[in-house]
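Forwarding these from the shared drive since the link keeps breaking.
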Amino acid sequence: MSDNESIVQKNTTNNLLRRDVRFLGHILGEVLVHQGGNELLAVVEKIRELSKSLRAQYDPAIYAEIKETINGLQPEIRHQVIRAFAIYFQLVNIAEQNHRIRRKRDYERSSGETVQPGSIESIVQRLKQNEISYQEVQDILQEISLELVITAHPTEATRRAVLDIHQRISQDVILLDNPTLTFRERENLREKLLAEVMTLWQTDELRNRKPTVIDEVQNGMYYFDETLFDVLPEVYQELERCLDKYYPNETWHVPSFLKFGSWIGGDRDGNPSVTSDVTWETLELHRGLALKKYEAILADVMNHLSFSKNLAEISEELQNSIEVDKEVFGPRTELWSNNDEPYRIKLAYMIERVRNTGNALAESNEKYASPDEMIQDLYIIERSLRSHFADFAADAYIKKLIRQVELFGFHLATLDIRQHSREHELAMTEVLKRTSIVEDYSQLSEKEKIDLLSKLLDEPRPITSPYMKYTESTEECLNVYRNIYKAQQEFGRNCLHSYLISMTCGASDMLEVMVFAKEVGLYRKEEDGTVVSTIQSVPLFETIDDLHEAPEIMNTLLNIPAYRASLNQAAPMHEIMLGYSDSNKDGGVITANWELRVALRELTDMGNKNGVKLKFFHGRGGSLGRGGMPLNRSILAQPVDTIGSGIKITEQGEVLSSRYSLQGIAYRSLEQATFSLIKGAVLARNPERPAKETQWEAIMKDISETAQNKYQDLIFRDKDFMTFFKQSTPLPEVGELNIGSRPSKRNNSDRFEDLRAIPWVFAWTQSRYLLPAWYAAGTALQTFYQNKEENMEVLKDMYENWSFFRSMIDGLQMAIAKADLLIAKEYGSLLKESDIANRIYELISTEYNLTSELILQITGQQEILDNVPVIQESIRLRNPYVDPLSYLQVDLLKELRAIRETDQDDAFLLREVLLTINGIAAGLRNTG
C-alpha cells in the first residue's frame, strides 16, 4: 500500500469513527428530548459548548458562565445532566472499541498479502526469515507460558446489566458498516439502537448493594462464556495455521502456553466474605460453566456430523467405542434413534457423559473421570473422520473442541488462593501453643521460626487434631487447606495450585503455608523419602523494602532441604509475585518501576545459582499508577532474560471489559500477547544488552533514589498531606460506590499504610491529578539533567535506545496527558484550610510543569503524546465532556459533606456524587 493510499484509508476509517460518535450522540439527544424535553437538551448543549470554548482558549468570562450555569441547575435537571454526560461517554467508548475492530479488518482487507505488524503471522514469518529451525521453534513453544489471572479488584465501576446493553449496542453499531443494508433495514437498525439507548437511560447504572463474592465470580465467568471460550482456541488455530504455512513439512500441535486463571473466590486477603465454603462454591460454578459449554458445543457438532455409514466407512476404533458406550448406557434410542449415523450416536453418548460429570449420584462409568477421557473420545472421532477423508469436518468441528477441553478442562480456570501473611502467623501461633510446641510463636525471631518450621515440615507427625477446638479464624484458615485437598480430588489438580502470601516479609511466611499444607496431605513424604507436593506457596513482595529483601528471602528458602524437596526435582520451578500497586504507593512510580526491574534481575540470578527457574507473577492494575499498560507492552517491558519459566499477569477491573467484552478486541489483545511472548523468548536466547546499559543503570539508580525522596517528602513527611488527600478527592465517597465485595481499607484503619492501592489511585484519578502515575519524575530527571546539554543528550539516548527507559517515559507522558491541573485546582476548594490547599497544590503543579517540560525535551516532541496521536486526539476530544462532570462533582461534594457534618445525610445527593464518579471513570477510561 502506498503512503497516499494509507493516508486516505486512515482518514476514511477516522471519518467512520466520527460518524458513529455523531450517530450515537444524535440518538442520545433524541432520548434526552423524549425524557426531559427540549429544555434538558438545551442545557446539556449549552454546558457542552461552554466547556469546549473554555478548552479551546481559557477565558475568565466563559469560566464564570459555566460555573454559574452548573451552580444554577435544579436538583432534578442536574441529575439528568450528569447522566447525559456519563452516558455519552459510554456511547463514545463503544464507538471507539468498535473502531479498533474496524481498523484491523480494514487493514486485513486492504493490505492483500502484507502481514499486519504485531500479528501472529508476522512473528512466525520473522522466525522463518531468521532461519530459526523447526526444532528451535518447538523448543520456544515449549518454553513460553502466559497465564492471565482475572481478579475481583474493585475497579470496574460499570454494572453487568449496563455492560450487557453496551454489548447489544456494539453489535448493532457494527452493522452500520454493512453496505448491503436497504433503506428500511437501516431505519430498523436506527430504531433498535434508539430503543437500546432509551433502555440504557432508564437502567440504573449504580448498584443498590455491594456485590457478593459469588456475584463477582459470576461477573468473571461472563468473559469466559461470552468471549474467551471461543477466542482463546482461535489464537492457537491461527498460530498453527501460520506454522503450517512457513514450516509446511512439519506436524504442529502447539502446547497450551496461553491460559486464564482467576483470583475471584480465592482471594481472601482483607476480605472476610471469601470463606472456604465460598471457594468451594466458586469451583463448582467454574465446572458447571465448562460442562454447560461442552454440552452446547457437542450438540452443535452433532447437528453437523450427519455422516451415514451407508456412504462413509467409519473407523473400527469408533465402532468399538460406540459398542462400549452401548454396554454402559444400554441401547438408549432416545439419545439418537438413527442407527445409520454413527457420529451422532457417539456424540449423544458423549453429551450424556458430560451431563453426568459432576453429578455425585451418576455411576462412575457413565461420566468422564477427567478431561483426558473426553479428549480421547474426541480424537477417536477425529481419526475416524480423517479415515474417510472428511478432514474439513475434523478441522472445523473437532479440532477446536479438543483445544477447548485442553485449555479449560472441567475446571474452567485455575483458581489461586491468596491470604495475608499475618493470618497464617496468628493461626500458627495458636496451633503451636495448643500442642505445647512453643508458647508464643509470634515472638520468635525469624531464624527461630525458620528452624522450627523446617523441622515441623520434615517430620511426619501432625500438629493439628480434628478433636481440638480452635478459634473461628484458625479453624477457617485450616479449612482452606482441607478444601484445597478435597478440590484437587474432585475437580483435578489443575483447579488449584498456587497459594499466594500477601506482604511476605520472610521465609517463615512461606514455610507456614507448607506446614499447614502438610497437615492435610498437600505436602507429604512417601515411605521411600520422596516428597509429593501439589501446592506451592507463592510470595508476594509488595513494598520497596520487601523488593530489596526478596532475593535473600528466596535464597534462604531454596536452601532448606524440606522446602526444596517440594519442587519438581526434574525441573525445579518457583513462582514469585511482584506487586506493582503497593510498591508504587510506597515509593512512587519512578522508584517502583526501577526497583521492580532490579528485583526481577536479582531474583533471576538467585534462581540460576540455585538451579531453579522462576515464574514471575506481575500484579499489574489497570491504571497507570498501578503498572497498567497494554498487555503486549507489559510482556516486553520486563528484561527478556527474566521470562524464565513463564509469566503470570493480573487482569482486573475495567481492563476486563475493555479487553474481553468484544471478541474482535479480545482476539487482537491475545494475538499481540502471543507475538510479544515469542519475540521475548527469541530475544532471551540471544540477549543483546545496549553497550551503555551499565552506565544507564547507574544513572537510573540515582534518578530512582531522588524520586523516592521527593515522593516520600510529600506523601509521608508532609504533615498536611493526608488532610489534603482526604478532603480534596472523593476518597470517602468512592468507598460507597458498591463496586466490590472487599473493604477499601485493611483492618478498617485510617492509616495510610492500611489504605488499599486501588482507592488511592481511584481517588487521584477522579480529582484529575493522577498523582501516583507521575509525581516526583520531574525532580528526579532534573537532578541528573541540571540544565546541562550533555546530560540531556544522555537522557535522549536512553529514551531512543533503552526499552525500559522509553517505556517509563511514555507511561509518564500518558499520565501527564490525562491529568489536568486546572480542573484539579477546583478540588482544592473542598479543603477547610485554604492555605494547605494552595501550598500543596503549588508543590504538585510545579512538579507537573517540570515533568512535562523534561518529557518534551527528552522525546523531542512538540506536545505530550505526539508519539500516540490517536490517544492524544481521544483525550483532547473527551476533556470538554469530562470537565462539566468534574465541576459538578466538586459542587456536590461540598454540599454533601456540609450536610454530613451536621450528622445528617442526603441519599439523592450521594447518588448524584456517585453518578459523577461513574461518568468521570468512563470519560477517562480509568478508575483504579
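-- next protein --
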Amino acid sequence: MSQGSLKLQVSLRFLVDKTEYLVFRSWSYRTKTAQLTFKLEKRVNSEFQPFGEQKEAEINAVIEKALGMNFETFTKVILLPQGQFDEFLKGKSANRRKILNSLVGYEKIFEDMCSQAGTRANLIKGECNAIQEQLKNLDLSLDIELNSQRRDRSQFLAQELPKLHQIVTNAQTALAAEKELLQRLRDLANWQQQLDELNKEAPKISELKQQLEQARVGDRLSATWTSVNLARNRYEKTQADVEIAAKALIEKQSAFKRQEDIFSQAEADQAEIAPQLKQREQALNAAKIYEEQRRVINDEIKKLEKTLIDKLKLITEADKAVKKAEVELNQKNQILTTANHELSQYFPGGSRLEQLNQVIPLLIKWEGIQKQVESDRTKLQQITQELNTAESDYQSAILNFQKSEAECDQYRVELDTARQQNYAAALRAFLHTGDDCLVCGGIYPEAHLLPQLESSGDIKALEKRDRAAEQNCQKATEAKTQAETTREHLKKQQTEYQTILAEKEVELEAETEQVVVILKADKWEVKALDRERQALHKSDTNYQKYLIHKEKAEAEIQASELNLNFVKSKLSDTQTQHQDLASELDRKKTQLQEILDTLSKLAGSDSYDNLFQKLEQDKRDLEHRIQHETQCYQNTRDEFKQAQQSDVKARGDFDLASTEKEHLEAEWKNNLEIVNFTEEIFQHSKVPPKEQNQWQQKIDDYNTNKIQLQTNVKRETDAIGDKNTNAEIIVQYEKIVADAGEKYKQAQDEYNELKLLIAKAEEQREQVEKLQAQLSSKQQELETYQILSKELRSDRFQDYILQHFERELVEVATVFLLKLTEQRYALKYENKEYKVEDNWSCGETRRVQTLSGGETFATSLSLALALSEKLSRGAKLGSLFIDEGFGTLDAETLKSVSSILLSLGKQDRLVGVITHVPALGEELGTQIKVEKFLEGSRIVVTGILT
C-alpha cells in the first residue's frame, strides 16, 4: 500500500486444520463511490483455486465457518490484552467488572437484549391496544330476556330429560323383566314336569344298576365258565355219543331191515294212487274259471269299501269346516263393526295437511336464513367501520413514508458530498479496529496515535444521521405495507360479506315467495302452523290406521264368505260321491254271491284254492315218498356201516372228556365261592356288552338329565321367588313404555331446538371471551417483557452473569498458571478478591498485590489465556498475540517474562508479542518490524521465522 495511491491492495495467507487459504482485498478510487473487491482462494494439490462466491458476505461466512467464530470473537481470542488483565487483577471490584465487560463484549449483548425486550414490549402493547379496540367495536346487543328464558327452559329440559329417559329405561326394564318372568314361569313348569316324569323312572334305574353290576362280575367269570361249559359239553357229548353210538348201531341195524319193507310197500302204493289223482285234476280245471272271476270281484269290493270309508271321513271333515267357516264369518263381521265405529271418530288430514307438510321445512329454513342475514348485516357494519379506520391509517403511513424517503435521499446526498470533499476522511471511514491508517500510518481507532482530520467528525455524524434516516425509512415502509395489507384484507372481507349478504337476501326472498305461494297468505306464525300440522297429522294417522283395519276386515269377510261357499259345495259333492259308491258296492256283492254258488256246486264245501293245493300236495307227496324211500334205503345201509365205526371212536373220546371235566369243575367251584355267586346267579347275570353299554348309557342319561333339571328348577325358583305375571300385565307395561317414549321424544326435540338457538347467541359471547382471554395473555406477556427490560437496564442482572463468568474464568486460569509456574501457584477468587495459593509454602494463600513483577505477569497472562479459551469455545487455534504491559517492567522482570513466553511457545502454539520494548524483542529472537517510508510501509523480518 502506498499513501495517496488510487488503488490499494492487501493479501493474507493462513492455515486452518492443515488447509491453506489466501484472501485478497483491494480498494479503487472513484468519483462517487469507491470500489471494493474481495477474493478467497484455497490450496488444492499445491495450487490455489477460487473458493465459491467472491462477495464480502460469502467470504466472511466461509472464514467464520473454518475458524468456528466471527471476526470480533477471533480478535478477542487471538489478541490477548495482557496489560488490561494486569490492571484487572489488581484493580477494585467495580473496575474489574468494567474491564471484564469490555473484554468479553457483554455491554453490547446486554444493550441488545434490553433493546429487543423493549421492542417486543412495544409490539405486544400495540397488540393489546388492537384487541381492546376490537372489544370496543364488538356489538354486544343481545335479547337478554329471551336468551335467559331459553336457557332456563333448556336447563329445565336438561334436568328433565335424564328423568324422562330414566322413566323410559325403567319402563323398558320393567317390561323386559315381566317378559323374562313370564318365560321363566313357563320354563319352570316345563322343567318341573320333566323332572317328575324322570323321577318315576328311579326304581327301574336302581334295578338296572344292580343288574349291570352283576353282569360286569359275570363278564370277569366268563372265560372260566366258557372252559367249564365246553368241558361239560364235551363230557356230555362224548357220553351221549357213546350211548347214541351203541343205540344207533342197534337202531341202524333195525332201521335197515324196516326200510327194506317200507320201500317195497311204497312202490305198491304208487301204482294204486296215480289214477285217482288224474281224475281230481280234471274236475279242478273246470272250476278254475269261476275262481278267477271271484278273485277279481272280491278285490274290487275291498277297494270300494276302503273308498267308501275315506269318503265318510271327508264328509265329517267337510261338515266341521262348514261350521268353522260360519263361526269365522261371524267374528269378521264383529271386527268390521268395531273398525267402522273407530273410523267415525277421526277424519283425514286432506289437502291442508299436505300443504303444512310441504311448508314446514321451508319455514324452518326461512327462519335460519333470516337469522343469518341479520348476523351478516351486523358483521358487515363492523368491517365497514374497521375499513374506514384502516384507510385513515394507510393515508397517514403513506405521508410518513414519503417524508422519511425524502429525508433519507437528502441525507445521502449530503453524505456523498462530504466524502468527496475529504478523501482522507473517506479512507479512514472504511478502517476496522486494529487496522493501520492509510493516511498517517497509525493504528485505528487509538485517537491519541492518529492526527485529527478536519472533516472526519462531520462525516461520522452524517453517516450516523444517514443510518438513522434509513432505519426510519425502513420502519415507514413496513408501516405502510402493514397498513396497506390491513386495508386490502378488510376490503376483501367487506366484498365477501356483501356477496354473502346479497346471496342470503336473494335466498330469503325466494324462500318467502315459496311459503306465500303454498300458504296463500303474506303473514304466518311458524309455531301455530306446526301445532296445527301435528294435530292434523295425528288425526290423519289414526284415520288411516282404522281405515286399513276396516279394509282388512272387509277383505277377510269376503274371503270367509268364499271359503264358506267352497266348503259347503265340497260337502255336497262328497255326499253325492258316497251314495254312488254305496250303490256300486251292493251290485258287486250280488255278483260275487252268484259266482260263489256256482263254485260250491263244482267243488263242494271247500274252496278251489284249497282243492288245487291239496291235489298238488298229494302229487308231490307221492313223488317225494318214492324218492325218499329210495334214498332212505340207501342211507340206512350206509349209516349202518358208519354206526359201527362211530361206536368205537365215541368210547375213546368219552374217556378223555371225563378227565378234563373233573379238573375244570374244581376250578369253577372255587371261582364262584370267591365272588359269592352260584351257577344259577351267574347264568342270570350274563348280558351282552352292547346291552351293558345301553344300560350304562341309560343310567348316565338319567343322572345327567336329573342334575340338569334340578339345577334349572332351582335356578328358576330362586330367580322367580314369589313373583308372578301374565299376558295382560305385559300389555299394560308395553302401553306405559310407549307413552313414556313419546314424552321423552317431545322433550328431546324441544331441547335440541333450544340448544341450536342458544348456541347462536353464545357464539358472539364466546368471541368476546376469546378476545378477553387473548388480551389477558398479551398483558401478562407485556408485563414479563417490561420487567425483563427494567432488569436488563439495572446492574443486578449483569453482576450475576459476570460473577458466574468470573468464577469459571478463574478455574481455567488456574490450569494455565500451574503450568507457567511449574505447579507453584494456583489462582483463587474469594469474597470478590483475587488471591494465589503458594504450593511451595505449604498452600499459603496471599493477595495478588504481593506477587513479584514476573509472577504478576504470569498470573495476568493465565487470565488472558483463560479468556481466550472460553471465547474460542473449544476451537483449536495454533497462534496467539500478546499486547501491552511490557513498558513498565524492569530488566530482571523482563528476563523472567521472556522465559515464560518461551515456555508458552513450546506448548504447540505460535506466540507473538506486540511491544515497543527492544530488550524484550532481543530476548525472544525472531522479530517482525513494520517500517514506514515516504512511499508507504514495509515489513522487515529478523532472526529465524518458523
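The mean pLDDT is 76. The chain has 19 helices and twelve strands.

- D.
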